[in-house]
Fold this protein.
Amino acid sequence: MRQSEAQTSPAFGPDGSSGAGGEAAVPRTRSSSLWVFAALGVTLLAVVLVFILENLQDATVSFFGARWRVPLGVDLLLATTLGALLVLVIGAVRVLQLRHLAHRRHHALRRMAEHQAADSAAQPVREEDEPA
C-alpha cells in the first residue's frame, strides 16, 4: 500500500475490525463516555464563566412586584437555570407517566398470559388431539 493510501484509509473497517490483523476495535465504555461528558461540562462551565465576567454591568430586574439589581450575566444565568429546571421537571413527569404506563401494560400482559395458561390447562384433551 502506498503512503498516501495509508493516510486516507480509515483506521477501522465497517465491521469494527482494524485493517491490520482483523482485531476488533476497542469498545466504548461507560467510563469513557463519562470522561467525554465531563470534559464537555468543564468546557461549557468555562464558557459560562467568561460570559458572566464579560457582562458584569448591573441590571434592574422586576418580577411580580419585586425589584432587585444584579449583574446582567448572573441574571441571565439564573433565568437559564430556572428554565432548565422547568424543562427537567416536565421531562421527569413525562418519564414517570411512561414508566407507569409500561408497568401497567406489563402486568396486564402477564395476567393475560396466566389466564391463557390456566384456560389451556383446564380444557380436556380430545381424542383427536392425542398423539398416536
Q: What stands out?
A: Confidence is low (pLDDT under 50) at residues 1-9. The helical segments are 3-8, 30-54, 72-122. Residues 95 and 101 are 10 Å apart (CA to CA).
